[in-house]
Amino acid sequence: MIRARLKAVLVALSVLIACAACSTAAAVPSGGLPPTLRVGVIPNISPETQRAQYEPFREYLAERLKTKVELFVATNYAGVVAALAARKLDVAYLGGLTYVQAEAQTKVTPLVTEVDQETGTPQYLSAVVARKDSAFTSTKDVVAAGAKFAFGDVSSTSGSLYPRIMLTDAGARCQKGDLTSCAPLSAVTFTGGHDATAQAVLSGSADAGGIEIRILHRLEKQGSVPKGALRVLETRKVMGYPWVAAPDLDQSARGAIVKAFTEMSDPKLLDLMRAKRYVAVSATDYTEVRERAAALGLLTAP
Question: So what's the architecture of 36-117+241-295 in CATH?
Answer without folding.
Answer: 3-Layer(aba) Sandwich (3.40)
